[in-house]
């Protein structure tokens, strides 16, 4: 009986040892398999649909941030330029009896313009002196304090002392043909000499003979004549004639115009 009991204990011991050995072998084999396939860990499991949906809904932090929209500044409107009015062209005046009329002089249109010039120390030269002795007077100015000459361009008979380009002067034979006054003004200017033109204005027997309508007349309509004739100072045509000569003188190089005989004649008629 005792022998049987020992035999049974031995058998039970062997069974237990065999079971332990089997479990050990199974554990070793499982460990080896796990090392060969690391992508399938033993605790990994297929995610459930709920987990997949949750992962999909989670925003990816690596996405580029949406740029914030900055406000566009309101452009400043460009002011509309004020158009410059086009001036109305003034037609050239139509000559009357060969004389170009000039606009009326009003109180508002009168102005004074003084050309910058040094103090003038001048001598008067008649037409003959200019034509025959110009070089002498230039030398005189260069040796003395003289810095200007007053030259006759229209004498008290109404004759111009140079060759004029004005049609009305040429028609009245009121100029000196062949004498170019521009050569005189240039030569004087080349020597630093101021050139002043002297012109007799209303005392004029030449133009009044050519055009009696411009002359002073008696009550009976005859031209007033006391040895010389005079342009009528009350007629604008007389002013225009004088101004046309003055403008030509400036164009020909004179620095200043000296008007003489701006008056009525001495007479007992009025």
Mind explaining what this structure looks like?
The chain has helices spanning 2-36, 49-57, 127-143, 167-171, 181-190, 205-210, 236-251; strands at residues 122-125, 148-154, 194-200, 256-260. The protein is of the alpha/beta class. It has a domain at 122-202 and 235-260: Rossmann fold. It has a 4-stranded parallel beta sheet with strand order 1-2-3-4. Helix 3 (127-143) links the parallel strand 1 and strand 2. Residues 49-59 have low confidence and may be disordered.
Binned strand content: 5-15%
CATH topology label of the domain at 122-202 and 235-260: Rossmann fold
How would you describe the oligomerization state of the chains in this entry? Answer: single chain
Low-confidence stretches: 49-59
Give the beta-strand count.
Answer: 4
Global mean pLDDT:
82
Widest beta sheet: strand line-up? 1-2-3-4
Q: What level of helicity do the residues show?
A: 25-40%
For the sheet with most strands, the description reads:
4 strands, parallel
Tell me the overall shape. rod-shaped
| Count, helices | 7
Decide which structural class fits the backbone: alpha/beta
- Spatial extent as radius of gyration: 61 Å
């Amino acid at each position: 009986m005792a022998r049987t009991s020992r035999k049974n204990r031995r058998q039970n011991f062997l069974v237990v040892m065999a079971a332990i050995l089997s479990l050990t072998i199974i554990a070793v084999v499982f460990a080896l398999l796990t090392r060969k396939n690391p992508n399938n860990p033993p605790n990994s499991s297929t995610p459930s649909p709920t987990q997949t949906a949750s992962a999909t809904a989670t925003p990816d932090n690596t996405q580029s941030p949406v740029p914030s929209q900055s406000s566009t500044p309101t452009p400043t409107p460009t002011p509309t330029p004020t158009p410059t009015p086009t001036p109305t062209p003034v037609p050239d005046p139509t000559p009357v009896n060969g004389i170009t009329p000039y606009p009326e002089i009003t109180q508002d249109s009168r102005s004074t313009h003084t050309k910058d010039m040094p103090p003038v120390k001048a001598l008067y030269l008649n037409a003959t002196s200019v034509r025959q002795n110009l070089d002498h007077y230039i030398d005189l100015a260069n040796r003395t304090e003289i810095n200007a000459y007053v030259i006759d361009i229209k004498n008290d008979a109404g004759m111009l002392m140079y060759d004029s380009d004005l049609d009305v002067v040429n028609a009245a034979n009121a100029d000196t043909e062949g004498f170019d006054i521009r050569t005189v003004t240039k030569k004087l200017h080349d020597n630093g000499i101021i050139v002043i033109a002297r012109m007799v204005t209303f005392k004029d027997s030449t133009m009044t003979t050519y055009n009696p309508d411009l002359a002073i007349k008696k009550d009976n309509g005859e031209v007033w004549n006391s040895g010389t004739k005079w342009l009528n100072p009350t007629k604008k045509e007389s002013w225009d004639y004088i101004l046309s000569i003055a403008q030509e003188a400036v164009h020909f190089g004179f620095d200043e115009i000296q008007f003489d005989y701006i008056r009525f004649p001495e007479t007992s008629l009025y």
